[in-house]
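To: structure subgroup
Subject: Chain for Friday's discussion

All,

I'm putting the inputs and outputs inline so they're searchable in the archive.
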Amino acid sequence: MTDFLTSVGYGQWILHALIALPVLGAIVVLFGTTANAKRIGLVVAVLEFILSIGLWWAVDTRPGTMQLVAAIPWIPTWGISYRVGIDGISLFMVLLTTMLLPLCVLSSFTYIAKREKAYYALLLLLTTGVLGVFISLDLFVFYVFWELMLIPMYFLIGIWGGTNRLYAAIKFFVFTMAGSLLMLVAILVMVYRIRVVTGVLSFSYEHLLLNAVKVRSWSPWLFGGFGLAFAIKVPIFPFHTWLPDAHVEAPTAGSVMLASVLLKMGIYGFLRFAIPFFPSVALGPDITALVIGLALIGIIYGALVAMVQPDIKKLVAYSSVSHLGFAMLGVWAGSVQSVQGALMVMIGHGFSTGALFFLIGMLYERRHTREISAYGGIARVVPLFSVILMIASLSSIGLPGLNGFIGEFLILLGSFRNHPVAVGLATTGVIFAAAYLLWALQRLIFNRLDKPENSSLRDLTLREVLVMAPLVIGIVWLGLFPGPVLRKMEPATKRYLELADPGIHPIKLFSFADKSK
Protein backbone atom coordinates (compact mmCIF):
# COMPACT_ATOMS: atom_id res chain seq x y z
CA MET A 1 0.00 0.00 0.00
CA THR A 2 2.84 2.40 0.87
CA ASP A 3 4.46 1.88 -2.55
CA PHE A 4 1.16 2.53 -4.32
CA LEU A 5 0.55 5.74 -2.36
CA THR A 6 4.07 6.91 -3.16
CA SER A 7 3.59 6.16 -6.85
CA VAL A 8 0.53 8.44 -7.05
CA GLY A 9 2.19 11.20 -5.03
CA TYR A 10 -0.42 10.78 -2.28
CA GLY A 11 1.55 12.67 0.34
CA GLN A 12 1.94 15.73 -1.87
CA TRP A 13 -1.76 16.43 -2.33
CA ILE A 14 -3.82 14.55 0.25
CA LEU A 15 -3.94 17.19 3.01
CA HIS A 16 -4.91 19.87 0.49
CA ALA A 17 -7.57 17.57 -0.97
CA LEU A 18 -9.09 16.81 2.43
CA ILE A 19 -9.46 20.54 3.07
CA ALA A 20 -10.74 21.47 -0.39
CA LEU A 21 -13.09 18.56 -1.18
CA PRO A 22 -15.80 19.42 1.39
CA VAL A 23 -15.78 23.06 0.20
CA LEU A 24 -16.23 21.97 -3.42
CA GLY A 25 -18.90 19.51 -2.32
CA ALA A 26 -20.74 22.27 -0.45
CA ILE A 27 -20.75 24.41 -3.60
CA VAL A 28 -22.12 21.54 -5.69
CA VAL A 29 -24.83 20.89 -3.07
CA LEU A 30 -25.88 24.55 -3.04
CA PHE A 31 -26.13 24.77 -6.81
CA GLY A 32 -27.80 21.38 -7.19
CA THR A 33 -31.41 20.40 -6.61
CA THR A 34 -32.91 19.88 -3.18
CA ALA A 35 -33.77 16.29 -4.06
CA ASN A 36 -30.12 15.48 -4.72
CA ALA A 37 -28.61 17.42 -1.80
CA LYS A 38 -28.38 14.47 0.59
CA ARG A 39 -27.03 12.13 -2.09
CA ILE A 40 -24.33 14.58 -3.18
CA GLY A 41 -23.44 15.18 0.46
CA LEU A 42 -23.12 11.46 1.08
CA VAL A 43 -20.97 10.88 -2.01
CA VAL A 44 -18.61 13.69 -1.02
CA ALA A 45 -18.46 12.46 2.58
CA VAL A 46 -17.69 8.88 1.57
CA LEU A 47 -15.04 10.04 -0.90
CA GLU A 48 -13.47 12.19 1.81
CA PHE A 49 -13.23 9.19 4.13
CA ILE A 50 -11.85 6.88 1.43
CA LEU A 51 -9.15 9.39 0.52
CA SER A 52 -8.17 9.82 4.17
CA ILE A 53 -7.67 6.10 4.84
CA GLY A 54 -4.32 6.18 3.05
CA LEU A 55 -2.96 8.44 5.80
CA TRP A 56 -2.57 5.33 7.98
CA TRP A 57 0.21 4.15 5.67
CA ALA A 58 1.42 7.46 4.27
CA VAL A 59 2.22 9.05 7.65
CA ASP A 60 5.44 7.65 9.08
CA THR A 61 4.84 8.15 12.78
CA ARG A 62 8.10 6.54 13.92
CA PRO A 63 10.16 9.76 14.10
CA GLY A 64 7.38 11.52 16.02
CA THR A 65 7.82 14.59 13.83
CA MET A 66 5.50 16.34 11.40
CA GLN A 67 4.94 14.52 8.12
CA LEU A 68 3.57 15.54 4.71
CA VAL A 69 4.52 19.13 5.45
CA ALA A 70 3.68 21.62 2.71
CA ALA A 71 3.80 25.41 2.69
CA ILE A 72 2.35 27.86 0.18
CA PRO A 73 2.99 31.61 0.69
CA TRP A 74 -0.24 33.42 1.40
CA ILE A 75 0.53 36.90 2.78
CA PRO A 76 4.34 37.01 2.63
CA THR A 77 4.70 40.55 3.95
CA TRP A 78 3.04 39.43 7.19
CA GLY A 79 4.90 36.13 7.36
CA ILE A 80 1.75 34.10 6.74
CA SER A 81 1.77 30.87 4.75
CA TYR A 82 -0.76 28.13 4.13
CA ARG A 83 1.33 25.55 5.98
CA VAL A 84 -0.03 22.10 6.86
CA GLY A 85 1.32 18.86 8.28
CA ILE A 86 0.31 15.84 10.33
CA ASP A 87 1.80 13.59 13.01
CA GLY A 88 0.76 10.69 15.23
CA ILE A 89 -1.44 12.95 17.37
CA SER A 90 -3.39 14.75 14.66
CA LEU A 91 -3.60 11.62 12.47
CA PHE A 92 -6.33 10.04 14.56
CA MET A 93 -8.29 13.24 14.93
CA VAL A 94 -8.35 13.57 11.13
CA LEU A 95 -9.41 9.94 10.63
CA LEU A 96 -12.10 10.23 13.31
CA THR A 97 -13.51 13.34 11.62
CA THR A 98 -13.60 11.86 8.13
CA MET A 99 -15.12 8.60 9.41
CA LEU A 100 -17.94 10.38 11.22
CA LEU A 101 -18.85 12.68 8.32
CA PRO A 102 -20.61 10.07 6.10
CA LEU A 103 -22.37 8.66 9.16
CA CYS A 104 -23.66 12.13 10.03
CA VAL A 105 -24.89 12.69 6.50
CA LEU A 106 -26.56 9.27 6.30
CA SER A 107 -28.24 9.70 9.69
CA SER A 108 -29.81 12.97 8.52
CA PHE A 109 -31.67 11.52 5.53
CA THR A 110 -35.04 11.39 7.31
CA TYR A 111 -34.30 13.76 10.21
CA ILE A 112 -33.72 16.88 8.08
CA ALA A 113 -36.77 17.94 6.10
CA LYS A 114 -36.23 21.67 5.57
CA ARG A 115 -33.49 23.72 3.87
CA GLU A 116 -31.68 20.52 3.01
CA LYS A 117 -29.17 22.12 0.64
CA ALA A 118 -28.00 24.59 3.27
CA TYR A 119 -27.83 21.85 5.92
CA TYR A 120 -25.57 19.50 3.99
CA ALA A 121 -23.42 22.35 2.70
CA LEU A 122 -22.85 23.60 6.25
CA LEU A 123 -22.03 20.10 7.46
CA LEU A 124 -19.35 19.83 4.78
CA LEU A 125 -17.96 23.28 5.58
CA LEU A 126 -17.81 22.33 9.26
CA THR A 127 -15.61 19.39 8.28
CA THR A 128 -13.21 21.66 6.44
CA GLY A 129 -12.91 23.90 9.50
CA VAL A 130 -12.27 20.97 11.85
CA LEU A 131 -9.68 19.31 9.60
CA GLY A 132 -7.94 22.65 9.12
CA VAL A 133 -7.55 23.02 12.88
CA PHE A 134 -5.92 19.60 13.16
CA ILE A 135 -3.38 20.02 10.35
CA SER A 136 -2.52 23.74 10.40
CA LEU A 137 1.12 24.61 11.04
CA ASP A 138 0.68 28.37 10.74
CA LEU A 139 -0.96 30.14 13.68
CA PHE A 140 -2.86 32.59 11.47
CA VAL A 141 -4.23 29.78 9.32
CA PHE A 142 -5.03 27.81 12.48
CA TYR A 143 -7.05 30.75 13.79
CA VAL A 144 -8.91 31.11 10.48
CA PHE A 145 -9.97 27.46 10.56
CA TRP A 146 -10.82 27.70 14.26
CA GLU A 147 -13.23 30.54 13.52
CA LEU A 148 -14.51 28.92 10.30
CA MET A 149 -15.65 25.92 12.33
CA LEU A 150 -17.72 28.20 14.56
CA ILE A 151 -19.96 29.58 11.79
CA PRO A 152 -21.46 26.32 10.39
CA MET A 153 -22.07 24.93 13.88
CA TYR A 154 -23.84 28.15 14.89
CA PHE A 155 -26.26 27.82 11.97
CA LEU A 156 -26.69 24.05 12.38
CA ILE A 157 -27.87 24.63 15.95
CA GLY A 158 -29.77 27.85 15.26
CA ILE A 159 -31.75 26.65 12.22
CA TRP A 160 -32.21 22.89 12.65
CA GLY A 161 -32.08 22.69 16.44
CA GLY A 162 -34.80 22.22 19.03
CA THR A 163 -37.20 24.60 20.74
CA ASN A 164 -34.50 26.73 22.42
CA ARG A 165 -32.13 26.58 19.49
CA LEU A 166 -31.47 30.32 19.23
CA TYR A 167 -30.52 30.60 22.89
CA ALA A 168 -28.20 27.58 22.61
CA ALA A 169 -26.62 28.80 19.35
CA ILE A 170 -25.95 32.30 20.69
CA LYS A 171 -24.53 30.93 23.94
CA PHE A 172 -22.24 28.57 22.01
CA PHE A 173 -21.13 31.42 19.75
CA VAL A 174 -20.50 33.91 22.57
CA PHE A 175 -18.50 31.49 24.73
CA THR A 176 -16.36 30.26 21.86
CA MET A 177 -15.85 33.71 20.35
CA ALA A 178 -14.78 35.20 23.68
CA GLY A 179 -12.06 32.61 24.05
CA SER A 180 -11.05 32.90 20.40
CA LEU A 181 -10.51 36.65 20.60
CA LEU A 182 -8.22 36.26 23.60
CA MET A 183 -6.29 33.61 21.68
CA LEU A 184 -5.97 35.94 18.69
CA VAL A 185 -4.53 38.65 20.93
CA ALA A 186 -2.08 36.13 22.38
CA ILE A 187 -1.02 35.03 18.89
CA LEU A 188 -0.44 38.60 17.71
CA VAL A 189 1.50 39.59 20.83
CA MET A 190 3.63 36.45 20.61
CA VAL A 191 4.44 37.02 16.94
CA TYR A 192 5.26 40.68 17.54
CA ARG A 193 7.47 40.07 20.57
CA ILE A 194 9.37 37.31 18.79
CA ARG A 195 9.85 39.62 15.82
CA VAL A 196 11.36 42.24 18.13
CA VAL A 197 13.87 39.67 19.40
CA THR A 198 14.66 37.78 16.19
CA GLY A 199 13.89 40.34 13.48
CA VAL A 200 11.70 37.77 11.70
CA LEU A 201 7.95 38.22 11.24
CA SER A 202 6.36 34.79 10.92
CA PHE A 203 3.24 32.96 12.07
CA SER A 204 4.91 29.60 11.36
CA TYR A 205 4.34 27.05 14.12
CA GLU A 206 7.91 25.84 13.91
CA HIS A 207 9.32 29.38 14.14
CA LEU A 208 7.13 30.29 17.11
CA LEU A 209 7.87 27.03 18.89
CA LEU A 210 11.62 27.40 18.55
CA ASN A 211 11.58 31.03 19.71
CA ALA A 212 8.87 31.01 22.37
CA VAL A 213 11.55 30.69 25.04
CA LYS A 214 12.86 34.14 23.99
CA VAL A 215 9.68 35.86 25.19
CA ARG A 216 9.56 34.03 28.50
CA SER A 217 8.58 37.18 30.43
CA TRP A 218 5.31 37.25 28.48
CA SER A 219 4.59 33.54 28.95
CA PRO A 220 2.00 33.76 31.77
CA TRP A 221 -0.17 36.21 29.81
CA LEU A 222 0.25 34.40 26.51
CA PHE A 223 -0.55 31.03 28.06
CA GLY A 224 -3.62 32.61 29.62
CA GLY A 225 -4.88 33.70 26.19
CA PHE A 226 -4.33 30.32 24.57
CA GLY A 227 -5.39 28.34 27.62
CA LEU A 228 -8.72 30.08 28.14
CA ALA A 229 -9.75 29.53 24.50
CA PHE A 230 -8.91 25.83 24.71
CA ALA A 231 -10.45 25.44 28.19
CA ILE A 232 -13.77 26.79 26.90
CA LYS A 233 -13.68 24.43 23.94
CA VAL A 234 -12.94 21.27 26.01
CA PRO A 235 -14.93 22.46 28.10
CA ILE A 236 -13.31 22.53 31.53
CA PHE A 237 -15.42 23.32 34.59
CA PRO A 238 -16.65 26.08 35.09
CA PHE A 239 -16.64 26.98 31.37
CA HIS A 240 -18.89 24.03 30.52
CA THR A 241 -22.29 25.69 30.78
CA TRP A 242 -22.69 26.21 27.03
CA LEU A 243 -22.26 22.51 26.30
CA PRO A 244 -25.51 20.93 27.60
CA ASP A 245 -27.64 23.55 25.85
CA ALA A 246 -25.78 23.16 22.57
CA HIS A 247 -25.98 19.36 22.70
CA VAL A 248 -29.64 19.19 23.57
CA GLU A 249 -30.78 21.72 20.98
CA ALA A 250 -28.48 20.67 18.10
CA PRO A 251 -29.72 18.25 15.43
CA THR A 252 -28.38 14.73 15.79
CA ALA A 253 -25.47 15.17 13.38
CA GLY A 254 -24.55 18.45 15.07
CA SER A 255 -24.48 16.77 18.48
CA VAL A 256 -22.31 13.96 17.13
CA MET A 257 -19.77 16.29 15.52
CA LEU A 258 -19.78 18.55 18.57
CA ALA A 259 -19.14 15.75 21.06
CA SER A 260 -16.96 13.48 18.96
CA VAL A 261 -14.72 16.04 17.26
CA LEU A 262 -15.19 19.71 18.23
CA LEU A 263 -14.63 19.19 21.95
CA LYS A 264 -11.34 17.42 21.18
CA MET A 265 -10.05 20.58 19.54
CA GLY A 266 -9.57 22.09 22.99
CA ILE A 267 -7.39 19.24 24.26
CA TYR A 268 -5.57 19.16 20.93
CA GLY A 269 -4.87 22.89 21.33
CA PHE A 270 -3.25 22.28 24.71
CA LEU A 271 -1.13 19.43 23.33
CA ARG A 272 -0.07 21.21 20.15
CA PHE A 273 0.23 24.86 21.18
CA ALA A 274 -0.38 26.02 24.75
CA ILE A 275 1.84 23.53 26.60
CA PRO A 276 4.76 23.21 24.11
CA PHE A 277 4.91 27.01 23.69
CA PHE A 278 4.89 27.77 27.42
CA PRO A 279 5.84 24.60 29.33
CA SER A 280 7.34 26.37 32.33
CA VAL A 281 4.01 28.13 32.95
CA ALA A 282 1.59 25.41 31.83
CA LEU A 283 3.27 22.66 33.82
CA GLY A 284 4.30 24.77 36.79
CA PRO A 285 3.01 23.68 40.20
CA ASP A 286 0.27 26.32 40.41
CA ILE A 287 -1.26 25.74 36.98
CA THR A 288 -0.88 21.96 37.36
CA ALA A 289 -2.74 22.01 40.67
CA LEU A 290 -5.43 24.27 39.21
CA VAL A 291 -6.01 22.20 36.06
CA ILE A 292 -6.01 18.85 37.86
CA GLY A 293 -8.37 20.29 40.45
CA LEU A 294 -10.76 21.56 37.79
CA ALA A 295 -10.47 18.24 35.91
CA LEU A 296 -11.47 16.34 39.05
CA ILE A 297 -14.40 18.67 39.64
CA GLY A 298 -15.47 18.12 36.03
CA ILE A 299 -15.18 14.33 36.38
CA ILE A 300 -17.27 14.13 39.55
CA TYR A 301 -19.62 17.08 38.96
CA GLY A 302 -20.39 16.01 35.38
CA ALA A 303 -21.21 12.48 36.52
CA LEU A 304 -23.39 13.59 39.44
CA VAL A 305 -25.37 16.07 37.33
CA ALA A 306 -25.80 13.44 34.60
CA MET A 307 -27.28 11.11 37.20
CA VAL A 308 -30.30 13.35 37.82
CA GLN A 309 -31.13 14.33 34.25
CA PRO A 310 -34.63 13.42 33.02
CA ASP A 311 -33.57 14.07 29.39
CA ILE A 312 -31.39 11.28 27.99
CA LYS A 313 -29.60 13.64 25.60
CA LYS A 314 -28.69 16.04 28.39
CA LEU A 315 -27.46 13.07 30.42
CA VAL A 316 -25.02 12.13 27.67
CA ALA A 317 -24.00 15.79 27.31
CA TYR A 318 -22.99 16.02 30.97
CA SER A 319 -21.17 12.70 30.67
CA SER A 320 -18.88 14.40 28.13
CA VAL A 321 -17.83 16.91 30.80
CA SER A 322 -16.85 13.97 32.99
CA HIS A 323 -15.00 12.02 30.29
CA LEU A 324 -13.00 14.98 29.05
CA GLY A 325 -12.05 15.74 32.64
CA PHE A 326 -10.24 12.39 32.51
CA ALA A 327 -8.44 13.50 29.34
CA MET A 328 -7.29 16.74 30.97
CA LEU A 329 -5.99 14.79 33.96
CA GLY A 330 -4.01 12.58 31.60
CA VAL A 331 -2.49 15.52 29.75
CA TRP A 332 -1.34 17.27 32.92
CA ALA A 333 -0.07 14.07 34.57
CA GLY A 334 2.63 14.22 31.92
CA SER A 335 3.65 10.57 31.44
CA VAL A 336 3.66 8.55 28.23
CA GLN A 337 0.88 6.34 29.53
CA SER A 338 -1.32 9.19 30.74
CA VAL A 339 -0.98 11.25 27.54
CA GLN A 340 -1.63 8.18 25.38
CA GLY A 341 -4.61 7.49 27.62
CA ALA A 342 -5.90 11.02 27.04
CA LEU A 343 -5.60 10.51 23.29
CA MET A 344 -7.39 7.15 23.54
CA VAL A 345 -10.17 8.79 25.56
CA MET A 346 -10.48 11.41 22.82
CA ILE A 347 -10.83 8.68 20.18
CA GLY A 348 -12.96 6.33 22.27
CA HIS A 349 -15.29 9.10 23.40
CA GLY A 350 -15.81 9.94 19.73
CA PHE A 351 -17.04 6.40 19.05
CA SER A 352 -19.12 5.75 22.17
CA THR A 353 -20.71 9.19 22.63
CA GLY A 354 -21.20 9.54 18.88
CA ALA A 355 -23.05 6.21 18.94
CA LEU A 356 -25.20 7.31 21.89
CA PHE A 357 -26.22 10.56 20.21
CA PHE A 358 -27.07 8.73 16.97
CA LEU A 359 -29.24 6.26 18.90
CA ILE A 360 -30.98 9.01 20.86
CA GLY A 361 -31.70 10.80 17.58
CA MET A 362 -33.16 7.62 16.07
CA LEU A 363 -35.38 7.13 19.12
CA TYR A 364 -36.46 10.77 18.99
CA GLU A 365 -37.51 10.39 15.34
CA ARG A 366 -39.88 7.62 16.43
CA ARG A 367 -41.38 9.11 19.61
CA HIS A 368 -40.46 12.83 19.47
CA THR A 369 -39.45 12.86 23.12
CA ARG A 370 -36.15 12.41 24.93
CA GLU A 371 -37.65 12.06 28.41
CA ILE A 372 -36.44 8.84 30.02
CA SER A 373 -39.76 8.47 31.81
CA ALA A 374 -41.56 8.21 28.44
CA TYR A 375 -39.99 4.82 27.77
CA GLY A 376 -39.44 1.55 29.60
CA GLY A 377 -39.31 -2.06 28.46
CA ILE A 378 -38.62 -1.20 24.83
CA ALA A 379 -35.97 -3.94 24.59
CA ARG A 380 -38.90 -6.26 23.91
CA VAL A 381 -39.89 -4.41 20.73
CA VAL A 382 -36.56 -2.94 19.50
CA PRO A 383 -33.98 -5.61 20.44
CA LEU A 384 -31.31 -4.56 17.93
CA PHE A 385 -31.52 -0.93 19.03
CA SER A 386 -31.28 -2.04 22.65
CA VAL A 387 -28.23 -4.25 22.10
CA ILE A 388 -26.31 -1.47 20.39
CA LEU A 389 -27.37 1.00 23.08
CA MET A 390 -26.04 -1.42 25.70
CA ILE A 391 -22.70 -1.76 23.90
CA ALA A 392 -22.27 2.01 23.53
CA SER A 393 -23.25 2.60 27.16
CA LEU A 394 -20.91 -0.07 28.52
CA SER A 395 -18.13 1.42 26.41
CA SER A 396 -18.83 4.84 27.92
CA ILE A 397 -18.72 3.29 31.41
CA GLY A 398 -15.30 1.81 30.68
CA LEU A 399 -16.08 -1.92 30.59
CA PRO A 400 -12.92 -3.99 29.91
CA GLY A 401 -12.93 -5.29 26.35
CA LEU A 402 -14.47 -2.10 24.97
CA ASN A 403 -12.69 1.08 23.92
CA GLY A 404 -13.61 3.21 26.93
CA PHE A 405 -11.58 1.04 29.29
CA ILE A 406 -8.23 1.48 27.52
CA GLY A 407 -8.03 5.25 27.78
CA GLU A 408 -9.21 5.55 31.36
CA PHE A 409 -6.95 2.72 32.52
CA LEU A 410 -3.87 4.30 30.92
CA ILE A 411 -4.72 7.70 32.44
CA LEU A 412 -5.12 6.26 35.93
CA LEU A 413 -1.98 4.12 35.54
CA GLY A 414 0.14 6.97 34.16
CA SER A 415 -1.11 9.52 36.69
CA PHE A 416 -0.80 7.43 39.85
CA ARG A 417 2.92 7.94 40.48
CA ASN A 418 2.77 11.74 40.73
CA HIS A 419 -0.89 12.27 41.60
CA PRO A 420 -2.17 9.31 43.65
CA VAL A 421 -4.84 11.31 45.47
CA ALA A 422 -6.19 12.70 42.18
CA VAL A 423 -6.33 9.18 40.76
CA GLY A 424 -8.28 7.99 43.78
CA LEU A 425 -10.82 10.78 43.38
CA ALA A 426 -11.02 10.32 39.59
CA THR A 427 -11.81 6.63 40.04
CA THR A 428 -15.09 7.61 41.68
CA GLY A 429 -16.08 9.10 38.33
CA VAL A 430 -16.00 5.59 36.84
CA ILE A 431 -18.34 4.38 39.59
CA PHE A 432 -20.70 7.30 39.05
CA ALA A 433 -20.66 6.67 35.28
CA ALA A 434 -21.82 3.11 35.89
CA ALA A 435 -24.54 4.42 38.17
CA TYR A 436 -26.06 7.01 35.81
CA LEU A 437 -25.79 4.98 32.62
CA LEU A 438 -26.97 1.64 34.01
CA TRP A 439 -29.84 3.33 35.82
CA ALA A 440 -30.79 5.15 32.61
CA LEU A 441 -30.69 1.86 30.68
CA GLN A 442 -32.88 0.18 33.28
CA ARG A 443 -35.52 2.91 32.98
CA LEU A 444 -35.21 3.24 29.21
CA ILE A 445 -35.12 -0.26 27.76
CA PHE A 446 -35.80 -2.58 30.69
CA ASN A 447 -38.50 -2.57 33.40
CA ARG A 448 -42.08 -3.10 32.23
CA LEU A 449 -43.41 -2.17 28.80
CA ASP A 450 -46.26 -0.20 30.35
CA LYS A 451 -46.83 2.54 27.77
CA PRO A 452 -48.97 1.51 24.78
CA GLU A 453 -47.29 3.97 22.41
CA ASN A 454 -43.97 2.10 22.85
CA SER A 455 -45.37 -1.28 21.83
CA SER A 456 -45.33 -0.37 18.13
CA LEU A 457 -41.83 1.13 17.96
CA ARG A 458 -39.89 0.19 14.83
CA ASP A 459 -36.46 -1.37 15.26
CA LEU A 460 -33.41 -0.08 13.39
CA THR A 461 -33.73 0.15 9.62
CA LEU A 462 -30.99 -0.92 7.21
CA ARG A 463 -29.85 2.71 6.85
CA GLU A 464 -29.61 3.08 10.61
CA VAL A 465 -27.70 -0.18 10.92
CA LEU A 466 -25.21 1.13 8.35
CA VAL A 467 -24.78 4.24 10.50
CA MET A 468 -24.20 2.28 13.70
CA ALA A 469 -22.12 -0.64 12.40
CA PRO A 470 -18.79 1.26 11.96
CA LEU A 471 -19.10 2.71 15.46
CA VAL A 472 -19.82 -0.66 17.08
CA ILE A 473 -16.92 -2.22 15.19
CA GLY A 474 -14.65 0.62 16.32
CA ILE A 475 -15.79 0.28 19.95
CA VAL A 476 -15.00 -3.45 20.02
CA TRP A 477 -11.84 -3.28 17.90
CA LEU A 478 -10.23 -0.51 19.94
CA GLY A 479 -11.16 -2.35 23.12
CA LEU A 480 -9.64 -5.67 22.08
CA PHE A 481 -6.79 -4.57 19.79
CA PRO A 482 -5.57 -1.10 20.82
CA GLY A 483 -1.94 -1.99 20.05
CA PRO A 484 -1.72 -0.64 16.47
CA VAL A 485 -3.21 2.71 17.48
CA LEU A 486 -1.00 3.02 20.58
CA ARG A 487 2.11 2.20 18.55
CA LYS A 488 1.21 4.81 15.96
CA MET A 489 0.77 7.57 18.52
CA GLU A 490 3.63 6.67 20.89
CA PRO A 491 6.52 8.44 19.08
CA ALA A 492 4.54 11.67 18.74
CA THR A 493 3.54 11.38 22.40
CA LYS A 494 7.17 11.07 23.46
CA ARG A 495 8.14 14.01 21.27
CA TYR A 496 5.37 16.08 22.84
CA LEU A 497 6.65 15.22 26.32
CA GLU A 498 10.15 16.30 25.30
CA LEU A 499 8.80 19.61 24.06
CA ALA A 500 6.72 19.99 27.21
CA ASP A 501 9.71 19.53 29.52
CA PRO A 502 10.36 22.99 31.00
CA GLY A 503 14.03 22.11 31.50
CA ILE A 504 14.82 21.32 27.88
CA HIS A 505 15.31 23.90 25.15
CA PRO A 506 12.84 22.97 22.36
CA ILE A 507 15.17 23.97 19.55
CA LYS A 508 17.19 20.81 20.16
CA LEU A 509 14.19 18.56 19.95
CA PHE A 510 11.87 19.71 17.20
CA SER A 511 12.34 18.87 13.55
CA PHE A 512 10.03 18.56 10.60
CA ALA A 513 10.09 15.65 8.16
CA ASP A 514 8.89 17.13 4.89
CA LYS A 515 7.68 14.43 2.50
CA SER A 516 6.01 16.82 0.13
CA LYS A 517 9.15 17.60 -1.79
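Points worth raising on Friday:
The longest strand covers residues 67-75.
Strands lie at 67-75, 80-86.

D.
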